[in-house]
Amino acid sequence: MPEYVMLYRNTAAASDASSDSPEQLQQKMRQWRAWFDQLQGKGELKSIGQPLEGGGRLVAGKKKLITDGPYAETKDLIGGYSLIQARDLDHAAKIASGCPILESGGSVEVRPVRQMTL
Amino acid sequence: MGHDRDEPPCGLEEHLFRRESGRLVAILTRLFGTHNLALAEDVVQDAFLQALETWKFHGPPRNPSAWLLTTAKRRALDVLRREGTARRFAPDLERFLESEWTVAPIVEEALDASGIPDAQLRMMFSCADPRLPEETQIALVLHLLCGFSVGETAAAFLKNHAAMEKRLGRAKKVLGEKRELFDLRGAGDVASRLPAVSRALYLLFNEGYHGASAESAVREELCEEALRLVALLLENPLTAVPRTRALAALMHFLSARLPARRGPDGGLLTLAEQDRARWVPGHIADGRRQLELAAATAEVSAIHLEAAIAALHTMAPSARETDWATIVSLYDALMRIEPTPVVALNRAVAVAERDGPARGLEEIAQIADRRRLAKYPFYFAAQGELELRLGHRAEAERHFESALALARNESERRFLRARMRTSADGRR
């Protein structure tokens, strides 16, 4: 079955989690865990992936210019990624539509993994 | 607590974040000083955000509390290194925080998990500041020690968000003036403020038990929080005095009844209607143990009497077989200490159980200051109940109607509507 990467993007709106109460944050975590469990249960989760830290370095161009963070160019930040299996892109997008990040204004970018086909 | 609760899917104890918030804010304030409460709250929030981002992928660690504390500790150290000299911190620790030699060990020591109960106790005493109105003290306890956000605190007291924000903001400023948390080791200080602390916890519990909140689920949580904080008082020899034990006993006895207080339709049930098999034996046992320890003194406080009354209810197999004579005498004693109209009303109800409804109504008619009960739905409901028992259905219906107009939430309204129907049915 084809594989897809889900990139979890936190937009400015999604980072409003900073004003959530402890109870709301725990609720959010519960939703994420429940969602991953559900994907796992249906055999759609190939790899849960990893969360990514906010800061970083950007290395660019032939001059190998190193700058702080990816945030200079993108106003939304990739907060993590997962790998899923789906029948096709529509199916993958449908899976992504259950992601809790959407409830807080974030987005999920779904990208097919390029297959080695002959 | 957490009786009969399902394990949540993420493997985290229910309300863990909220509870940890109260613990972490207290211990960080111990380090930063009460004038830096906002900074402590920021550090805690940051730890939760990191937890959310990490745990949603990896699942919570085996010891979530330790993980959160370590994360907060690391962040606190960053803050202290960055702002070391620009900001003043807890007066008694300040000199250690100025030097890189001592800052790390002092943070390690000050933020050790073993210091959390002490920090929370001190925070509780700080919140019970006599310069603050009682209602603000309770709101502050809920906000700072129980991890309720401003919005959640506002909802618990049926206040609007902006008003609560303003109130808590002002209160935090008052705490900040002292720069450090209340010190329980000072001579005589505990005794001077413990009554205010107990009162705040008593009112917090009451808000949950009899409160005006329309949201029933919130109410029982308040009872749990109050009980949790009283348990903290019981852990420290300075605060585990007989009066505190009596307060704990009262809360346990009342908590035992919580699961039986509402019928299948969500309406409140009277003591007589409750299925006593659903009362929680664990709470009753805890209540009895605390009441025994509370008796280790000649002193009989109002709380002792209230706890003793609650104890008698839990010992009776039914409302009818309750030792009403002793309960009346306990109310008599309570009236000598706290002659309020509400106590008098409760006493009158007990008299009615002992001597019949007509005597009860006479007692109600004799309550001094009865006017102060005019907004209290239970005042009319009690009269309705007694009139109904006398077969005076029209009067009963009229009283229940008055009570209904004053009812503060759906549970009360359901109960009173059912009572009105009962009164009306018999007249047809």
Highlighted features:
heterodimer, A: 118 residues, alpha+beta, Alpha-Beta Plaits, two-stranded antiparallel sheet, 2 helices, 24% helix, 32% strand, B: 428 residues, mainly alpha, 4 domains, disordered N terminus
What does this structure look like?
The complex is a heterodimer of chains A (118) and B (428). Chain A has 118 residues and is α+β, with helices and mostly antiparallel strands. Chain A has a single domain, classed as Alpha-Beta Plaits (2-Layer Sandwich), CATH 3.30.70.1060. Chain A has helices spanning 22-41, 89-96; strands at residues 3-10, 45-51, 57-60, 65-68, 77-85, 107-112. The longest helix of chain A is centred in the N-terminal third of the chain and has 20 residues, at 22-41. Chain A has a 4-stranded antiparallel β-sheet with strand order 2-5-1-6, with helices on one face. Chain A has a two-stranded antiparallel sheet with strand order 3-4. Residues 1-9 of chain B have low confidence and may be disordered. In chain B, helix 6 packs antiparallel against helix 7 (134-145), helix 7 (134-145) crosses helix 10 (189-209) and helix 16 (341-355) runs antiparallel to helix 17. Chain B folds into 4 domains: 1-180, no CATH class; 241-322, no CATH class; 328-370, no CATH class; 374-428. Chain B is mostly helical and 428 residues long. Chain B has helices spanning 16-32, 37-58, 64-83, 94-97, 100-110, 116-127, 134-145, 150-156, 161-178, 189-209, 216-235, 242-257, 281-294, 302-315, 324-337, 341-355, 357-365, 377-389, 393-406, 410-427. Classes of the chains: A alpha+beta (118), B mainly alpha (428). Chain A binds chain B through residues 17-18, 20-26, 28-30, 32-34, 36-37, 48-51, 79-80, and chain B through 8-12, 15-18, 20-21, 45, 48-49, 51-60, 147-149, 151-152.
